[in-house]
Specification:
disordered N terminus, binds zinc ion, single chain, 15 helices, 426 residues, 14% strand, 14 strands, five-stranded mixed sheet, alpha/beta
């Protein structure tokens, strides 16, 4: 009898598990052209197990308990990145079980709320991965499978004893994405929002190239020690945030059949004020207060500074790129500028490494120059537009951008009247 029951259970398990063939046709929640999230038929191209939602891009893990406390003896004893991750992982959780209903056309419909959320999360990460590997041409080997902790109990004990909620983020100490439970957020769940997940995936790419994939990047660690005067930290955080928004925008333009180009990365998940503050289509200028804060204060005391400067940078890039070809060339140039060992045009990684002991030498000027120098030769119009917008909107001195190689801004570069000049030595 026991054997017969076991056999029946095995049969049932088989019949519950839809066959996995690539690509899989499923329904996910996708932003449509009318601005609503709708159940939409999509293809998952990289999933190898549709029930546990595992594939080339991501592996989803549920119910983990993740806790970081500076007083935790296990955390204090950790000497390596791997040991820290182990110390933080109080329970690694287990793979999830998605359930589906198959329609007559063979399309899988999520059968419960979590499956809708999970399938959409995988789909959004797959599209972000597709954007970075195909549109931006990052080698697939640089972007292997990443763990996604789904609805973990995530406690940052130095901040609060309560588990964190209402967020979806890339978390370098665990080299994982975290999709946290909802609490107060009433709008589209963050993991459902393709632009937000692309922004987070862009942080993973930035981490890999600029910080060599480090769980605790040395520039962030070293520079954060300087309290309320962290000019290098301010710039590198602004680059990370602003360029993540620009990537989310360019990636959204790939999806012309649906919602299309989205300059409002936070739209449909956050309130209008926050959405508008990050809209990269709104013309922006470096003002005196922002400049003073960037060069003399700290993201430690002004947590919004990285987003304000980042959105300004993203706006300058948005203003400089009109055609699809320009957007793609720019996205590739940005990722090329993340790391380049060529001493004639060093990347952010190398600039940060040489400024580890003096963050005042990691400046927005050098970062802007690195971006321009990675626009391939021959893109004369694009380079000219970026040079003009960086000089005008970011207030980068023209003579810091010009030079005599084909990668520099041309000597003819000038500013426009779009932004009033500020005092760079107040
Ligand atoms: Zn971010």
């Amino acid at each position: 009898m026991v054997r017969k029951l076991t056999a029946t259970a095995a049969l049932l398990a088989l019949s519950c598990a839809p066959q996995t063939q690539v690509p899989m046709k499923v329904r996910a929640l996708v932003l449509s052209s009318n601005g609503a999230y709708e159940p939409t038929e999509v293809e998952l191209k990289t999933v190898t197990d549709i029930v546990s939602l595992e594939g080339k891009v991501a592996r989803i893990q549920g119910n983990a308990i993740l806790r970081l406390a500076s007083t935790d003896p296990e955390v204090q004893a950790a000497q390596t990145e791997e040991a820290l991750a182990r110390a933080m992982t109080k329970d690694e959780g287990r793979s999830i079980t998605a359930s589906y209903i198959t329609d007559p056309q063979g399309v899988l419909w999520p059968a419960d709320f979590h499956t809708w959320n999970l399938v959409t999360t995988y789909y959004n990460l797959e599209r972000a991965w597709d954007y970075f590997t195909n549109v931006v041409a990052v080698p697939q080997a640089e972007l292997p499978q990443t763990t996604v902790h789904y609805f973990p109990e995530f406690v940052l004990a130095d901040v609060s004893d309560q588990p964190q909620r209402d967020n979806a983020l890339f978390y370098p100490p665990l080299k994982s994405f975290l999709v946290l439970p909802f609490d107060k957020l009433q709008k589209a769940p963050l993991a459902t929002n393709a632009s937000i997940l692309t922004h987070e995936y862009a942080h993973l790419v930035f981490n890999r190239r600029v910080y060599g994939g480090s769980a605790l990047p040395a520039p962030l660690n070293n520079w954060a020690q300087s309290g309320d005067f962290t000019p290098g930290l301010n710039v590198i955080k602004a680059l990370d945030e602003g360029l993540a928004d620009f990537h989310a925008y360019v990636a959204s333009c790939q999806d012309v059949k649906r919602f299309g180009c989205n300059t409002r990365v936070l739209a449909y998940s956050f309130e209008d004020v926050a959405v508008n503050e990050r809209d990269l289509a709104t013309p922006r200028c470096m003002g005196q207060l922002m400049y003073n804060n960037l060069t003399r204060s700290s993201v430690n005391v002004l947590p919004n500074l990285a987003y304000e400067v980042g959105t300004l940078l993203a706006n300058a890039l948005f203003m400089s790129t009109t055609t699809d070809a320009e957007k793609q060339t720019m996205a590739r140039a940005i990722v090329a500028a993340y790391s380049d060992t060529d001493a004639a045009r060093p990347g952010f990684n190398q600039l940060a490494a040489s400024s580890l002991n003096d963050q005042t030498t990691f400046t927005l000027i050098k970062a802007a120059k690195a971006i321009i120098q990675h626009i391939p030769a021959g893109n004369v119009d694009l380079r000219q537009k970026v040079c003009t917008n960086f000089a005008t909107r970011l207030q980068i001195p023209v003579n810091a951008l010009t030079g005599n190689t084909e990668y520099d801004c041309p000597a003819s570069t000038t500013t426009t009247t779009d932004c009033p000049a500020i005092n760079l030595n107040p």
